[in-house]
Amino acid sequence: MSKVIYGVNAVLEALNSHPELIEEIWLSKINLSGKKFQILEKAKKLEIPLKIISKPNLKPPKVPPEANTQGVVAYISEFSYAELEDIVKNWEDKKETPLVVILDQIEDPQNVGSIIRSADAGGVHGIVIPKLRSCDINETVIKVSSGSAFNIPIAKVNNLKYAISFFKEKNLWIVGLTHKTDLSIYELD
Question: RNA 2-O ribose methyltransferase substrate binding domain location, by residue (predicted)?
């Protein structure tokens, strides 16, 4: 079943990182310049089906009425989750000190999207989320992450304890963070 993502940055990141997921793109021909023009050109080059619409306020099917699409909407296949091994491969390929974020019981898609965007900017090699009591990587998460969800391997696991053990076996330090503390992350040793 197709999902919809919208907004210039989210769609451009999907095109750059995972064009194989994109089934169709709708573009408003109003202000078709800059990044919107890049989307148009890249979609043509990749032979992704395009619909050019003359209305400035683009609202195709499945788009929430209140959504600010910025004149760009893409229909994508289901988000493709990574495996824990993909996260390891990501830091090994980059020959960097590994940094992984594990999210536990974060159910608000706005928060998950913001965390993903910050993790991408901070050079994180992968994100792990549990299958239960967690937000799926959905349209809202992708929009809020500005498409960063396509840049970082995100694994969805049955058991966070297993994931932590897996990374400990790879010699990663495990550090837990909570809002219920007086200690800043910058004070950690």
Answer: 4-82
For residue 143, which amino acid is it? K
Order of all β-strands in the sheet with 100-102: 100-102, 126-130, 154-157
Q: Which domains does the chain have, with CATH numbers?
A: 3-76 (3.30.1330.30), 84-187 (3.40.1280.10)
- What residues contact 172, with CB distance under 8 A and at least 6 apart? 98, 100
Q: What is the pTM of this model?
A: 0.79
Q: What share of the chain is helix, strand, coil (3-state, %, to 5)?
A: 40, 15, 45
pLDDT in tens, 49-93: 998 888 766 677 777 777 788 888 899 888 889 999 999 998 899
